[in-house]
Amino acid sequence: MFITILVIATIAAAILSIGVGLGRLAARPALNRTYRELADAAWQLAHDPLTGLFNRTGLHAVYTGLAAAPGPQPLIVMLLDLDGFKAVNDTYGHDGGDTLLMEVADRISSITEINGGAAARLSGDEFVIILPVRDQQIASLADTIVSAVGRPVQVDTDNGPVTTAVTASIGVAVIESTDHLQDVALHRADTAMYHAKHQGGNQHITYAPGMTMPDRQHRRGPRPRDLRHNRPGVTA
């Protein structure tokens, strides 16, 4: 999928440069329109349509770019899962749930961008944040995100606007940019996240060497991304 984005962008640039090079003024509006359409297609491939955050493809593209930079660099990976989101969906419907997801995404994105990182929505109420370590106060930053997510959100219902709130369980892992995204970065952050959820949620837990998943009886079952990852022919 990452290759597809690059191919679209390359074709778009080539089409536009050819049109300009030939000097065909009459063709330029059509070429510009084609370029915009291709650029929009590339954006859609890499972004979640609901929240505007990166999707799984976009996350891989970001991570691939970091891995390709000269020399490995330490990165912070946070996997965030909302506590109590299903209850919001069940109570206020999918429109209410979508409103909450968009608001949470905006809050996560604002904090992430200020700190030089990128945020993605993997599926449902699961988000990922990638940040450079630099001089970040990791625990303080994670607490800031927990607090931001926990602020009340106003959603529209058939009976008018109501205020609701969810909390977040966050797993934090510090890895190298050359580590594998699925098998190392997300796996470690996922393991730590489940410890945060197992201990009541509304908090962050940092992965420590040797940490394993909590007892499976406390888990909610296979995650959508795990099911996709395990399908024949599907790679991370």
Automatic annotation (TrEMBL):
Region (Disordered): 204-236
PROSITE patterns per the UniProt record, alphabetical: GGDEF
Residue ranges of every copy of the GGDEF domain listed in the record: 73-209
Superkingdom of the source species: Bacteria
Alphabetical list of SMART domains matching this protein: GGDEF
InterPro entries named in the record: Biofilm_reg_signaling, GGDEF_dom, Nucleotide_cyclase, Rev_trsase/Diguanyl_cyclase
Residues spanning the signal sequence: none
Pfam families membership: GGDEF
PANTHER family noted in UniProt: BIOFILM ARCHITECTURE MAINTENANCE PROTEIN MBAA, DIGUANYLATE CYCLASE DGCP
Protein name as it appears in the record: GGDEF domain-containing protein
Gene source species: Dactylosporangium aurantiacum
